[in-house]
Design goal:
- It is a single chain.
- This protein is an alpha+beta fold and 209 residues long.
- Helix content is 25%, strand content 23%.
- It is built from four helices and ten strands.
- Strands 7-6-10-8-9 form a five-stranded mixed β-sheet, with no helix packed on it. Strands 2-1-5 form a three-stranded antiparallel β-sheet, covered by helices on one side.
- InterPro entries: PEP-CTERM_polysacc_export (IPR017477), Poly_export (IPR049712), Poly_export_N (IPR003715), SLBB_dom (IPR054765).
- One of its GO terms (biological process) is monoatomic ion transport.
- It comes from Pseudoduganella violacea.
């Protein structure tokens, strides 16, 4: 009886260790730490719904002015109706307005300045979960995890900061990377301050302990 009990205890211990090792291995594979995101991609700002565009038509103030980009991504200006603006740079939009105005004005020269930056939806950074103010943020070049945390007011007292993660598209596929918010905020560990990328989703889970 004692021999059987001893063998059973050894078998259960070995099984527990094996399952623990497999669980740890699975976690490391599916959620690797985000340590180096590479150089910041070079990209011009793309206009998005919610932005405001200041349009100046040289020597034609009557058709100049500031207009909002509608939720459908289009703008309407004097002499130009329902022109697609979302997803374009300010230079591209200026050239499109020149083409539309050419029907009414000889050789129009247009300048577009974007104000009230929001950006396109697929480039916004979204913060969900136990952030103080969960929200979408316009991406800015060289934006870091610390910049995002400042913008959302940090995390709540219920957050499990070191279990947070960033969901990011890499080569067209979504991947999830671990980040260490507690180390960054509470311990001042600057190595935990990683670069952000357009379209990132920061997930801050709740602590159950």
């Amino acid at each position: 009886m004692n021999t059987l009990h001893l063998k059973l205890s050894k078998w259960l211990s070995a099984a527990t260790l094996l399952l623990g090792a497999l669980a740890l291995s699975g976690c490391a594979t599916s959620h690797p730490p985000l340590t180096d995101a590479g150089p910041t991609p070079e990209a011009d700002y793309l206009i998005g719904p919610g932005d405001n565009v200041n349009i100046t038509v040289w020597r034609n103030p009557e058709v100049s002015g500031s207009v909002p980009v509608r939720p459908d991504g289009k703008i309407t200006t004097p002499l130009v109706e329902d022109l697609e603006a979302s997803g374009k740079t300010s230079t591209q939009l200026a050239r499109d307005i020149e083409k539309a105005l050419a029907k009414y004005i000889q050789q129009p020269v247009v300048t577009v300045i974007v104000t009230g930056f929001v950006g396109t939806y697929n480039e916004q950074i979204r913060v969900i979960g136990q952030a103080a103010r969960p929200q979408s943020l316009p991406y800015r070049r060289d934006m870091s995890l610390m910049d995002v945390l400042i913008a959302v007011g940090g995390v709540t007292e219920f957050a499990s900061g070191n279990k947070a993660s960033i969901i990011r598209k890499v080569d067209g596929k979504q991947q999830q990377f671990k980040v260490r918010l507690d180390d960054l905020i509470k311990n001042g560990d600057i190595s935990a301050n990683v670069p952000m990328r357009p379209g990132d989703i920061l997930v801050v889970p709740e602590s159950f302990f």
